Amino acid sequence: MSEKRTGCLTAFLVVALLVSAIVNLAFLAGRSGRGVRTAISSSPASPFGEETVVAAGEGAAGKRIAVISLRGVISTAEPGEIGESGLDDLLAELKQARNDNSVAAILLRIDSPGGEVTASDILYEEVAKTREKKPVVVSMDAVAASGGYYVACAGSYLYAHETSITASIGVIMQSVNYQNLLEKVGLEVLTFKSGKFKDLLNGARELTEAEREYVQGLINQSYNKFVGIVARERKLDEAELRKGVADGRIVSGSDALKERLVDELGGFDQALEKARELGNAPGAEAIRFTTPLAFGKLVRFLSEAPRPAGKLKLEIGAPSATKLQSGRLYFLSPALMP
Questions:
Q1: Which of 10, 97, 151, 178 is most exposed, with minimal Cβ within 10 Å?
Q2: Contact by Cβ (8 Å): 278, 105
Q3: pLDDT-derived band of residue 271, with 50, 70 and 90 as boundaries?
């Protein structure tokens, strides 16, 4: 039975490979008329093999503006197109744009409620590194909050729409306490541990005062770094920042401008013109790096194990798509997540 199933799977994958190849060829043939072209340089250091024209240009021969998008939750858990994670893809895009001599400036579009502390910090450092070599103009879309704003602070110039939601300067960690529920159904969790903090955030019991102080200390460490970065990058008084807008609140783009969290109000077009100005490339076209359709994506999709039928899944708290993972620190605005 097992050999028969394996044979069927092999045959299916072979057919799928042929179909994928045909679709790829047809797709690539049709893209040539829609502003898609092979990248000028394609090497291990330039993993994105194609470029799509986002906005046509009339000047600055040989100079382009690279448009890079940060969308959704910033996390190492999200799968990537060319890398292990979506974060790896963004880092690769920034590196490729930074090392491409034809790219005069970068326009970083952000639509993100934030994400993991470490992932946000890694991305911030990469944007800051890129900024040292060429201008990075940030264009905030609907949301650029918490970790999204953390990353934005590394930009050379920040734009927000009047109605953009941003700021949310703060750190959050959550856990669910289900002790009372266990008592009602007559269950008890037995824990054997090597030290008093080993079962930190155990939802089957109340936190001790020492545990509360320890967790709050971790929160404060990340928060202090966040506030320090905002104060330094935006040239604001840190003490005033702590007493005011850095209390975790979200603000509109208009209020962000009043608080000097952004440089100017505007959308993609205004940000693109600023990128051309700062990159000394008037009229330069805007491009984004892309990858062709890959059979690997199809194989990954087909290899995913199907969900077993007939099972009831009970979730405590928010749905799994929006729930914060216990024990992780986040620069995140949970209320802004879909």
A1: 10
A2: yes
A3: very high
As a whole number of angstroms, the distance between CA 327 and CA 335 comes to 19
125 pLDDT above the threshold of 50: yes
Instruction: Provide the 8-state DSSP code for 33.
Output: G
> Could you give the residue numbers annotated as active site?
146, 198
Phi, psi of 76 (to 5 degrees): -80, -5
Cα torsion for 154, 155, 159, 160, to the nearest 10°? Answer: -30
pLDDT tens for residues 228-237?
Answer: 999 999 999 9
What domains appear along the chain, each with residue ranges and CATH number?
29-169+247-293+323-336 (3.90.226.10)
Tokens of 160: 């927000």
- Here the tokens at position 237 are 């008084």
Q: Which helix (H) or strand (E) holds 120?
A: helix 117-131
Burial class for 128, CB neighbours closer than 10 Å (0-12, 13-18, 19+): middle
Q: Radius of gyration over alpha carbons of the chain, in Å? A: 24
Residue type, 319: P
Q: Is 317 left (phi over 0), alpha (psi -120 to 50) or beta?
A: left
